[in-house]
Amino acid sequence: MPDLFSPFTLKGVTLRNRTVMSPMTMYNSVDGKLDDYHVSYLGARASGGFGLIFGEQMAITPDGRTTTSCAGIWDDNQIEGHARVCAIVERMGSVPAIQLGHTGRKGSEVPPHKETNEEGTWKQLPPDHPNGWTCVAPSAIPYGGGGHIHPVHELTVAEIKAIHQAYADAAVRAREAGYKWLEMHYAHGYLGASFFSPLANQRTDDYGGSVEKRLRFHTEALDAVRAVWPEEYPLTIRLGSDDLNPAGIQFEDSIYAVAKLKEHGLDLADLSIGFNTDEMVDPPLAEMGFMLERAARVRREVDIPVATSWNLGVPQNADQAIRDELIDLVFLGRPALANPHWPVWAARELAHPDPFGLVPDDWAWWLRNFRGHEASIGWPANRGTEPSTSSSSP
To answer: Which of 186, 190, 207, 233 is the catalytic position?
Structure first.
């Protein structure tokens, strides 16, 4: 039976455990580049024991960013920073992963920690602002919530094809940088999610209408990436599987979508919420592991590996989800920000026989062999059995 710290193999890639540093937008890029900040931040999580490390959604075009402070991979001069991140992540024993996406009608924002409007929600800049631009969408319907009130541009078919090519070009750069895992972001109200949702997509051509037509953006983008992404490396998606609104994406639609995408080369589905509207009915966002049953159903009915996030930061809950074979990987965002060594802490909580085996060997030697009172090491009291703490080392 698998557990949270059992290896996981997908295609030609093996993760040392089932914990994943989830993509988190950090608003710390200049010209879309990764730098020392990202090497330090992501390297710390890799050395902390996570099996798979994502940075943030990497924009495939400049207007695919959330803000001008967001990272991307739309230009060759951005490859060097990504290569540095890949190198430190692998050196620390993890697998480097990249999430490609386009924010669509949720772009042209101010970083949320820097400025908000009077209602306290995220502020979208007008197109004529120096740091703003005209957002694109499947239909000319602004998101509306969170201050997203400015007109959006309805993509033409030619522009959709260009975005698919941008996905493929970004995937080539990701391969050159050294990434071993690629995820496409089709959730959280961004461009892929908005094409899938009837709340945002009211087109009457081949990219709108039926579920199959609303999914065409996804399948064509996936095909474009599959053609250039190495077959031995996983190609996955994050899918907005439910808008929690009767007029939006329904979960049944998502079961069909994952099955269809599997036919186009999808290797794993990372299930999340659509977030195509703020008008959600009884959103369960504060409930522990509320996505687990949805993800487990996709796993059973589509016969594909699945992952999810949302309130899985309690080690016992995360471990049980793996043991019960509800999901294959646990994505952790805020828990990973709060504690870069979350896997080590979780291993101690779960009585893992050698939790310090999750960190690099040189660190592990010191942590396994120390003098003095156990609590003085800076970790909560160990709940299981560990190697002896006695040592004559300095």
So the answer is: 190
